[in-house]
Amino acid sequence: MADPPAPSRVSAGILLFRRTANKLEVLLGHPGGPYFADRDRGVWSIPKGEVQPGEELLAVALREFGEETGHVVGTGNLLPLGSVRQRGGKEVHAWAVEGELDPAAAVSNTFSLEWPPRSGLHVEVPEVDRVGWWATDEARERINAAQVELLDRLEAMLRR
Asked: What residues make up the domain containing 106?
């Protein structure tokens, strides 16, 4: 029996943002499943997913946003944020786009997970169990540390 394919070391995602009266807010997703159930700070992320060989980065970013939120974003006015490398070595490519999304209406795709580990039992869990809007100062506390740079880049672009 062949080993399962190694996870991709490249992901692509969308950072949805909105401007309110006094601040910039970004939409972040909290990873689903039992490993992250009791964790909050430092585990939230932009909606993103793995890029397979031959796939176009932007197409993956748009697809993954849809899969993890249940919503489609337009391709107009996309701001390229470049890429960051997370602690485990994964490279994350991102684009930002201004828009609205009601967190209560967000629905994520699911995946099968053996739980408890080595039990032979499988459960379906959402890839993202919730999304939320965060002012960028608060988002910096919640997001994966490597992705803070994406927030910095977005703020710099919007100041120009």
From this structure: 10-159
